[in-house]
From TrEMBL:
GO biological process: regulation of lignin biosynthetic process; response to auxin
Name under which the protein is recorded: Uncharacterized protein
Molecular function as annotated in GO: DNA-binding transcription factor activity; transcription cis-regulatory region binding
GO CC, one annotated term: nucleus
Region (Disordered) residue spans: 259-281
Pfam families linked to this entry: Myb_DNA-binding
Cell compartments where the protein resides: Nucleus
Coiled-coil stretches noted in the UniProt entry, renumbered to this chain: none
Cleaved signal peptide residues: none
Keyword Transcription regulation: yes
Primary localization: nucleus
UniProt entry keywords in alphabetical sequence: DNA-binding, Nucleus, Repeat, Transcription, Transcription regulation
Length: 316
DNA sequence: AAAAGCAGCAACCGCCTATCT
DNA sequence: GAGATAGGCGGTTGCTGCTTT
């Protein structure tokens, strides 16, 4: 018997989030930081369950999320990690700081599975796989044992750090955000999108604008002076790791290493620094080295497929 | 042009784990 | 040590928009 659902209360709203709800949630997290989700609906008046709030934040509202259009490079990494880790989407997502586990899971289910099926079907015709591992795209020396990767590192669920000092009043922040909503939506660059979720592609942009225009409201807040990295560590991380990582040789760079202890880069104030931090990795284990080497080969494979430059035409 | 089918994705559900008392 | 609970994760559902017939 599991616990009763957390959302069985009467009056809990379900379904798509509205812009107003998003703004309320973002404002609250702006002020208090992510975490303590149970208190979020209580303190904000949102008629949502805590899980729903957390999910909305982690999957859509937190800064640094990139949506849509997975690159062949990303695909290769996902495929490779999936073959190693199985459907541990959170673990896989930890290698894609810009992507959410939900996004990766959806992408896998809707795109990559099909691609691999075709890949394997063609492979079965032209180069039958060894009988021992017919469903895997890689000969997995590691899959037999427990592969300990960066799954437990804090990166994946850092949620971006929002500085609490940026705003000290939720209601005020909400009003400011609502007041600014239209301009941001207009400059979103995707105004043709029909749905809210995609037109507000990433509300963090809205949030970013809000933060820039919201001066600290007291001296204590001014003292903290968060750096750009602290405000949005994921963005800066991604700029470092992703923008230049277009070659295969950069693959290792794309697999983020945990920050050194003295560098709180990815840890905000938000309380997400406890459990996962305990599992930070040391130097690469042999299995990880193996993974990296294998990954490069597999990425080449998949990129070939995606580019349509392999000898066998692929119709995705 | 309308209907049917399909694909993509946001969100929910239920279980598991870690933490707190 | 046991029970309670919040947070986290993966599977699944259902809605929406697009494509095909």
């Amino acid at each position: 018997m599991g616990r009763p659902p957390c959302c069985d209360k009467v009056g809990i709203k379900k379904g798509p989030w509205t812009p107003e709800e998003d703004i309320i949630l973002v404002s609250y997290i702006q002020e208090h930081g992510p975490g303590n989700w149970r208190s979020v609906p209580i303190n904000t008046g949102l008629m949502r369950c805590s899980k729903s709030c957390r999910l909305r934040w982690t999957n859509y509202l937190r800064p640094g999320i990139r949506r849509g259009n997975f690159t062949p490079h990303e695909e290769g990494i996902i495929v490779h990690l999936q073959s190693l880790l199985g459907n541990r989407w959170a673990a896989i997502a930890s290698y894609h700081p810009q992507r959410t586990d939900n996004d990766i899971k959806n992408y896998w289910n809707t795109h990559l599975k099909k691609k691999l099926k075709k890949h394997q079907a063609i492979g079965a015709i032209f180069a039958p796989p060894p009988p021992s591992e017919p469903s895997s795209i890689i000969p997995t020396t590691a899959s037999a044992g427990h592969v300990h990767l960066h799954h437990d590192m804090p990166l994946s669920k850092d949620y971006g750090s929002l500085h609490p000092a940026a705003c000290t009043n939720t209601a005020e922040a909400t009003h400011q955000l609502i007041a600014r909503r239209s301009p941001f939506a207009a400059t979103d660059g995707d105004s043709s999108s029909s749905s809210y979720a995609s037109s507000m592609d990433n509300i963090s942009r809205l949030l970013c604008g809000f933060m820039k225009s919201s001066p600290p409201q007291n001296d204590a807040a001014a003292d903290i002076k968060p750096s750009a990295t602290e405000i949005n560590p994921l963005l800066s991380f991604n700029q470092y790791h992703m923008t230049g990582a277009t070659t295969l040789s950069a693959f290792n760079d794309m697999l983020p290493s945990p920050p050194p202890p003295q560098q709180p880069a990815l840890m905000g104030h938000s309380g997400y620094d406890e459990p996962r931090q305990q599992h930070q990795q040391g130097p690469l284990s042999p299995i990880e080295k193996w993974l990296f080497e294998e990954a490069e080969e597999q990425v080449v494979d998949l990129m070939d497929l995606s580019d349509g430059c392999c000898s066998v035409p692929m119709m995705f």
